[in-house]
Amino acid sequence: MKTDPPASPVRGPATEGTGWFTCLCSRVFLPDVVQGHATSHYAAALEVMPPQRSGHSRLLELGAGHCEVARMLRSLGWDVHAADIENSCVAEAAALGFPATRLDLNEPLPFSDGSFDFVVMLEVIEHVVRAEAALGEVARVLLPGGQLLLTTPNHAFYKSRLRMLKGRPLGMEGDHVRFFVKAQLESLLAAKGFQVTARNSSGHLPLMDGRWVRKLAGRKRVLCRVPEWLEPSCAINFVWLAERVG
Questions:
Q1: Global pTM value
Q2: Half-sphere exposure of residue 168, counting CA atoms within 13 Å on the CB side?
Q3: CATH of the domain at 110
Q4: 149 domain residue, yes or no
Q5: Sign of the CA dihedral with 159 first, then 165, 171, and 173 last
Q6: Total count of domains within the chain
Q7: Confidence check: pLDDT of 158 > 50
Q8: How far is Cα 241 from Cα 21, in angstroms, rounded to an integer?
Q9: Residue 97 CA neighbour count, 13 Å, CB half
Q10: By percentage, how much of the chain surpasses pLDDT 90?
Q11: Is 110 inside a domain boundary?
């Protein structure tokens, strides 16, 4: 179940009208508004969300929860169809005026081929036993050239590895049933006809979340934008935009 994301979409690092140090920080760190919040990966995802194009606005959110993100996307001009496994969430989405469907992602999606221009799956795929089949279904209901916005935890995050070496629980499993690492998830997306076109993964870089950095930055937590080459170990969450090319 989703927790509340930031009150408004975070559109990416600002670079105009600010000093070079502020510009640099905006490129490296996630915005102050989401620092220290569990929903920082939602904000990171919204940063790479492309603008809605006229005639290409049909969007399906899988695992819509309480429609926090769906409401944001609707305000940006998307025609959002909300879907969730929980009856209460589906009823809430319908009450908010969204077309809403109850579905189980372990089963075929109840939509025709090419029904949508865009699919959003934020912190969902790790809860799906048949994740491979689910991504195949996402590809099927997308038009060619359609896009998927996907986030999921990185099972190989270096702090998680240290916890396991100490015999401690990961602290992020919850009711997760699938656990992904970078190469594995990339291969799975490619096998289903997707190409990753943008990344905005977030995490802690070694030494960049130390007490002195937190004190200097005036933050309880220092979440960084993780470049692709550091994603395997330093990303807490993969935040990827992928296009259906096959």
A1: 0.82
A2: 9
A3: 3.40.50.150
A4: yes
A5: positive
A6: 1
A7: yes
A8: 28
A9: 4
A10: 58
A11: yes
pLDDT digit string, tens, across residues 85-95: 999 999 999 99
Write out the residue range of the structural domain in which residue 124 sits. Answer: 42-244
Beta bridge partners of 80: 59
Given a contact cutoff of 8 angstroms between Cβ atoms, the answer to whether 82 and 93 are in contact is yes
Measured CA to CA, the distance from residue 188 to residue 185 in angstroms comes to 5
Nearest to 155 by CA among 133, 180, 131: 180
Q: Which two tokens stand for residue 140?
A: 């099927």
Tell me if 75 sits within 8 A of 68, measured CB to CB.
no
Continuous segment of H or E residues that includes residue 205? none
Residue 34, domain member (yes or no): no
Per-residue pLDDT, 175: 83
For residue 217, which of 26, 56, 64 has the smallest C-alpha distance?
A: 26
pLDDT digits (tens, 9 = 90+) for 181-214: 999 999 999 999 999 999 999 887 766 555 656 6
Q: Decide if 31 is inside a domain.
A: no
How many angstroms separate the CA atoms of 156 and 149, rounded?
Answer: 21
Spatial separation of the C-alpha atoms in residues 164 and 19, rounded to whole Å = 41
The candidate with the shortest Cα–Cα distance to 123, out of 193, 207, 38, 194, is 38
